[in-house]
Design a protein that fits this description.
The complex is a heterodimer of chains A (about 200) and B (about 140).
Chain A (H helix, E strand, L loop, with lengths): L4 H9 L5 H21 L2 H18 L9 H20 L12 H14 L7 H16 L3 H11 L5 H8 L3 H30 L1
Helix pairs in contact in A: 1-2, 2-3, 2-4, 3-4, 4-8, 5-6, 5-9, 7-8, 7-9, 8-9
Chain B lengths: L18 H6 L1 H18 L10 H47 L18 H7 E3 L5 E3 L4
Antiparallel strand pairs in B: 1-2
The chains are: A mainly alpha (about 200), B mainly alpha (about 140).
Chain lengths: ~200, ~140
């Protein structure tokens, strides 16, 4: 039978072989993708993930086993990403509605082909993904984290709040506010595209 | 008809927007396009896969580093005990030095004995007992 997270933590603290490896195996995808969506540099992901798991290992003794391990590991990952961004000094928040001309042109072209939910070509889809990626990166660290944990990793609001170290209400507000900003920005560009066409 | 606009920011992925309202509200229909576009692309955001060796490598590295806190503990303990150890080693050195010194040749070990307890007296008084031990013969 598969061991629970709490059992694996205890076994790891007692020095049982492979216990920590199982913990890493269980959460490595989550950690890799949080890092990737926070930092955006695939070449950095493995090194940062390694630092995250070493911190997890060294802090296992302080982990409250009544709480979910997933949210605790996510919190350590988020904090590690914040430290990396601080060192990079590139976590500044830009005005969300200030699209460049190129971005606006790409969104409009994507809208032209996707209006009426028509299927997009692979190249167009890739371009749109890249653009959305850029938009998400302009969010503040906490808004981006809350939004991605909820929308991409499928966290519940309670898990988002634990990963952020905030209340559940604050987590809900962050996710809702971020959705609103993204939707407003997309709607604005889509509308301007319609105006140009008519 | 419900004239209240749909709050797309509060719609969860599993929730469906109010179709009746959408039929008569151009603004919400426009927002619905943005909403669908956002959902579609969030579902397709690129994901990265950890390399096959990652879990084993990081677990091994963690195990290697588990030793570090104990080594640090030893180092700190040694630092704290160092003054005491140095003092103890000094005392032992002094003691060993004193023990290694030759005995004063002028010192007479029989000086403290009573005058009548001369070596000759004692030896002359010794007799072999029937049990095989030595006894002092007081008759002399």
């Amino acid at each position: 039978m598969e061991k629970t997270d709490a059992e694996l933590v205890i076994a790891s603290l007692e020095g049982a072989p492979y216990a920590f490896e199982q913990i890493v195996q269980r959460y490595q995808r989550l950690v890799f993708n949080i890092i990737y969506h926070q930092l955006g540099r695939p070449q950095e992901v493995e090194d940062v993930a390694q630092e995250v798991f070493l911190k997890v290992f060294n802090s296992l003794g302080r982990f409250d086993r009544r709480r979910p391990l997933k949210a605790w590991i996510a919190k350590i990952t988020v904090n590690q990403c914040r430290d990396v961004l601080r060192k990079r000094r590139s976590s500044r928040v830009e005005a969300f509605s200030n699209f460049t001309e190129d971005e606006e042109r790409r969104i409009r072209s994507l809208h032209d082909v996707s209006a009426g939910t028509a299927a997009m070509t692979e190249a167009e889809s890739r371009a749109c993904l890249k653009l959305l990626d850029q938009l998400v990166r302009r969010l503040s660290h906490k808004d981006r984290t809350a939004f991605l944990l909820r929308e991409v990793e499928g966290f519940g609001y309670d898990e988002v709040s634990k990963a952020l170290g905030s209340s559940e209400v604050a987590a809900r507000i962050r996710v809702s506010r971020t959705r609103k900003r993204l939707l407003a920005a997309l709607s604005q560009v889509l509308s301007s595209g319609e105006t140009l066409k008519t | 008809m419900n004239r209240k606009h749909i709050r797309f920011e509060d719609l969860e992925p599993t929730e469906a927007p109010d179709e009746e309202h959408l039929k008569s509200c151009g603004r919400c229909r426009r927002e619905l396009r943005a909403f669908r576009l956002l959902r579609f692309h969030l579902e397709q955001l690129p994901r990265v896969e950890p390399p096959a060796h990652f879990a084993r490598t990081v677990a091994r590295l963690a195990e290697e580093r588990r030793v570090v806190p104990f080594a640090l503990f030893l180092e700190r303990a040694a630092r704290q005990l160092a003054p005491g150890l140095i003092a103890l080693m000094g005392a032992v050195s002094v003691l060993l030095y004193q023990l290694s010194q030759p005995v004063d040749p002028n010192l007479n070990p029989l000086e403290s004995l009573p005058e009548e307890a001369s070596l000759e007296y004692t030896v002359d008084s010794l007799r072999l007992s029937s049990e095989g031990g030595w006894i002092i013969d007081e008759s002399n």
